[in-house]
Amino acid sequence: MIDELDRAILRELQKDARQTNRDLAAAVGVAPSTSLERVRALRERGVVRGYRADVDLDAIGRHVQAMIAVRIRPPSRRNIESFREWVSRLSETVGVFVTSGSRDFLIHIAVADTDGLYAFVIDRLTQRPEVADVETSVVYEHRRAVPVDPIRERRSEGREPNQGRTG
Amino acid sequence: MIDELDRAILRELQKDARQTNRDLAAAVGVAPSTSLERVRALRERGVVRGYRADVDLDAIGRHVQAMIAVRIRPPSRRNIESFREWVSRLSETVGVFVTSGSRDFLIHIAVADTDGLYAFVIDRLTQRPEVADVETSVVYEHRRAVPVDPIRERRSEGREPNQGRTG
DNA sequence: AAGATCTGCCGAATTTTATTCGGGGCAAAG
DNA sequence: CTTTGCCCCGAATAAAATTCGGCAGATCTT
């Protein structure tokens, strides 16, 4: 389903999703028309959901990031989904993880300063009656990785990419 | 520093970082040459760090995601930085948060299945002597948000964008 | 208040890139 | 050994990015 050429393309598009198709083709070692077709297929199959700018939160005035663990009581579907929708829409929210374990949500937020962090917790979160418990951790650093490598790939029946002629 | 036009551009580039500059210009209501210049400036100033493809982890065979809280003992700079570098490079790792609070790291991973999750914890993490405590939470869902809106903006001396002539 | 100056926007011309499409090689199937 | 299918390639066309001279409005200067 996903061959080595696809993976190479995904790696490149993680590094720079806006590089020209010519550069992409050169980087992965195929003709531009080939990489164009592969990228189109990856999008159509939903492997690539889209392309996003990577914005420096500090540069747009959000100098403080935090991860907030929240417990919902009772953790009914109704409460979970309702809270998820609500928190996703807050302007402070950068990401939302719905989790198992002792906490139901991990909310990644970015705010202007520590006052903003405090205000988020005591003004926003505690507004919600289903929020039973909150634990805040300041995020000192956040790094993203490039998850494209094959993970203990189960042997698939798919063909490897045809190398064809090279001239 | 960041005016409303910049913010509109950032919002658009969150929706689709690969839309053509013409479309971007139309979406934010300026000429293509103007939006091109703005985007170039945003990149040069470091507001936009780059552009990344949004890859569906499930579609590339990583069916299980988890958030793993790790405590490092002793939490010395040496141990923290060494662990951060090491964990960032693992193929399972999607993101790494360095945090305050009772845990020093939050590691977002994506693996093939629950076996892979178990293996990550007992084979990888416990290999490291500085890892004192590990707590795993399965991630049922992960949503990203679009953090571009102004957050309690301090009044800055920057000029608002000149609207100029419209014809 | 009037002129000078600066900033940012515009639009046409040029350069670069994306996109399309017919054809060929390799591999598996018959 | 022939057929079939898949993937890749490269040239031609269409579309987009990029450059740049010039203008409008705001601010500064005198």
Automatic annotation (TrEMBL), chains A, B:
Q: Does the keyword Transcription regulation apply?
A: yes
Name the keywords, alphabetized: DNA-binding, Transcription, Transcription regulation
Query: Which residues does UniProt assign to the signal peptide?
Result: none
The family database entries (InterPro entries) matched by this protein are listed as: ArsR-like_HTH (IPR011991), AsnC-type_HTH_dom (IPR000485), Dimeric_a/b-barrel (IPR011008), Tscrpt_reg_AsnC-like (IPR019888), Tscrpt_reg_AsnC/Lrp_C (IPR019887), WH-like_DNA-bd_sf (IPR036388), WH_DNA-bd_sf (IPR036390)
Domain HTH asnC-type residue range list: 2-63
Is Transcription regulation given among the entry's keywords? yes
- Coiled coil regions, renumbered to chain: none
Q: What is this protein called?
A: Lrp/AsnC family transcriptional regulator
